[in-house]
Amino acid sequence: RESQVELREHIDSLATELCRINEDQKVALDLDPYVKKLLNARRRVVLVNNILQNAQERLRRLNHSVAKETLRRKALLEAAGGYPQGLPGK
After folding, report:
1. Once rounded to an integer, what is the mean pLDDT over residues 7-22?
2. Is residue 55 assigned to a domain?
3. Measured between alpha carbons, how far is 47 from 54 in angstroms, rounded to an integer?
4. Alpha carbons 28 and 25: distance in angstroms, whole number
5. Which of 27, 42, 46, 71 could make an S-S bridge to 11, C-beta 3.0–4.6 Å?
6. Domain tally for the chain?
7. Which domain holds residue 72?
8. Gyration radius of the chain's alpha carbons
9. Region for residue 81 given its phi and psi (left: phi exceeds 0; alpha: psi -120 to 50; beta: otherwise)
10. What are the pLDDT digits (tens) for 27-76?
């Protein structure tokens, strides 16, 4: 995620720099297509970043659910008088 944020910042910086260069040029260069390409790349980076954040949040919730279920099962086993044969007690 950090690299996605850094990439987005670099793209923003490049787009700003291209606009500044275009304004400073005595001969009008059409840099708009390049700026649009950078903005499109930025949009894709933001999309990937959102997908990664959603996946990370789902993994966090899944990990929490697994830990909760593990504790529940351990409590059930301990309440039933210990672990079944063949499983080491912890």
Report:
1. 82
2. yes
3. 11
4. 6
5. 42
6. 1
7. 29-77
8. 26
9. left
10. 666 777 887 888 888 889 889 889 999 999 999 999 999 999 999 999 99
Asked whether residue 87 is domain-assigned, the answer is: no
For residue 70, give both structure tokens. Answer: 């593990």
The residue to which tokens 């400073």 are assigned: 24
Q: Does a structural domain hold residue 6?
A: no
Residue type, 90: K
- Distance, in Å, from the CA atom of 55 to the CA atom of 15, rounded to the nearest integer, reads 29
- Token duo for residue 22: 């275009």
Q: Tell me which residue has tokens 């309440």.
A: 79
> Which residues contact residue 24 at a Cβ distance below 8 angstroms, ignoring those fewer than 6 apart?
none
Type and span of the H or E element at 32: helix 32-79
Which of 76, 80, 78, 81 has its CA nearest to residue 90?
A: 78
Q: CA 24 to CA 8: how far, in whole Å?
A: 24
Residue 42 lies inside a defined structural domain of this protein? yes
